[in-house]
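Researcher: Re-running this chain for the archive, since the previous output was lost when a drive failed. Same request as before.
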Amino acid sequence: MRKLQQLSAGLGLRRSLMPELDAAGDLRSAIDFFEIAPENWLGIGGRLGKAFRRYTEAYPFIAHGLSLSLGGPDPLDDIFLQRLKGFLDDHGILLYSEHLSWCSDGAHLYDLLPIPFTEDALRHVAARVRRTQDILGRRIAVENASFYTPLASEISEPEFLLGVVREADCDLLLDVNNVYVNSVNHRYDARAFIDQIPAERVAYLHVAGHYEEAPDLIVDTHGADIVDPVWELLAYTYQRMGRRATLLERDFNIPPLPELLQELGKVRRVQDENAPVLLPCARPRHAAV
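Model: Regenerated structure tokens:
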């Protein structure tokens, strides 16, 4: 199975896509990896479970969680994490990532809510990430979140994000579209944000489309094609950080598979143009070893 560092462009595996994927046959030259929400597949058996197993045996997979609520007040769900550990190990999942957000307070709220950028919140989240890693027995990645209203802030968004990564000793899932969305909604320079991110901490990238509610308000929907400013920011990210496995997110208004593969191909072209694969120099025939 290929390592994460060797992958270029991937898609989210949606059940609605599986008939088209099955009909298309071997797509490993076009799709390097799939990403799934583990909550949607834990405990699934029967025909669908067997189909999922065929995919995890044929392709590398990343799991991107929806419900851990890293920033929430409730205790971490240790039972869920034990089940998740078995699932990740059983299917050979390369990496588990989660949103840097919260989604529960006595019950699941079915939304990903932002965390205030405070020192107390930073320590709270970092401790929960460390515990998650201890239970799973593996390093995880946390994702920078989009948010739509100013938060109670003692520190900046990059300081909070990198503080969590440093104190928890985890990795970062850098969502390039979220950086762009927040830069428009909260009036900051998206490239300056990227400049503050240490490349060695970035495990992989997300890129997606969004909805423009107004010139100064963008909603992160994952339901549209990627727009030119996000492509440009993605190119800049590769220039700054080199190649990174990149997930094309499409959760709503999902087009036919050929259209998705066309957009995925553009991700690969942007990589090739801005972060080409550097081949090792040929060793002279009589070079000393």
